[in-house]
Amino acid sequence: xxxxxxxxxxxxxxxxxxxxxxxxxxxxxxxxxxxxxxxxxxxxxxxxxxxxxxxxxxxxxxxxxxxxxxxxxxxxxxxxxxxxxxxxxxxxxxxxxxxxxxxxxxxxxxxxxxxxxxxxxxxxxxxxxxxxxxxxxxxxxxxxxxxxxxxxxxxxxxxxxxxxxxxxxxxxxxxxxxxxxxxxxxxxxxxxxxxxxxxxxxxxxxxxxxxxxxxxxxxxxxxxxxxxxxxxxxxxxxxxxxxxxxxxxxxxxxxxxxxxxxxxxxxxxxxxxxxxxxxxxxxxxxxxxxxxxxxxxxxxxxxxxxxxxxxxxxxxxxxxxxxxxxxxxxxxxxxxxxxxxxxxxxxxxxxxxxxxxxxxxxxxxxxxxxxxxxxxxxxxxx
Length: 382
Known about the structure:
The strands form six sheets. The chain has a four-stranded antiparallel β-sheet with strand order 1-24-23-22, with no helix packed on it. A four-stranded antiparallel β-sheet has the order 2-3-4-5, with no helix packed on it. Strands 6-7-8-9 form a four-stranded antiparallel β-sheet, with no helix packed on it. The chain is mainly β and 382 residues long.
């Protein structure tokens, strides 16, 4: 065919849209040829993820309750009227008192300490390895899979004794003589009786006679990776009973949603377990006609941490103030009766005075508040 270049009508027209489609198909083909292995792996990953999240779906509990002031709790500023014991050491997570009224707490650097009202700190012992303090005070070491210093969480003094029982997130259940300053790991996280599900994050415990009840928040991740369990609400937590005298271990409840608090009821016939990811309290019966069964005890007004019984047979719960900057900053302590009715609440609407509270203990008509990240123990009038 002879084409005269001077005649524009004789120039073959190109269908630009069609050509764009062809070019796109060619680019896709080249991409597939070059990256087919990566694409295959990506597709496999999607299939695995679909299977995984069909078992452990993303939970919306973070947004279930909204701001704590939305519920039937009268706002106040009681949580802003606080005094502080400045211990200058980070992470007094849990608080307990011995028979003489001495305060004990566990720190992020693995130390168990006795704290005087003026802030003087006496070292008792470290739950992990006895290494130099400067190593354990190095925050970069806290993100190791198993920090050598340990991380004590739940604390309980055995009544009328010098023994402090500790749930350490990395090492298991530890018994400490606070006078002799000695320790014994009575149930290690890697005890063979746990089989292929070793303890990953023991969080809290309670004691009745020779029985130690404790919760393991997750069997999937250690403390430093447990945020995934919280976000996706994996039902991988467990409740155990360990009889120290008989050296007998029993699994009582499985598939709990990040349990991080446990408390015996006043009658000792049941346990209350805080499911952090579901903002609720489960009641598990250890005696009576309901023995071995469980039920929902309370739907909480927000994500909570440890549970503690007062000498008035009431229950104290903590809202940790802020979770990963998702939850609004709001400090909250709530007191319930044993029927699940709210009796009293302490509020800090800004969450600035008491940050990331984790534990509330009533002692001598005052509330003592622990903190996961702070370096002070807050005291509020009851």
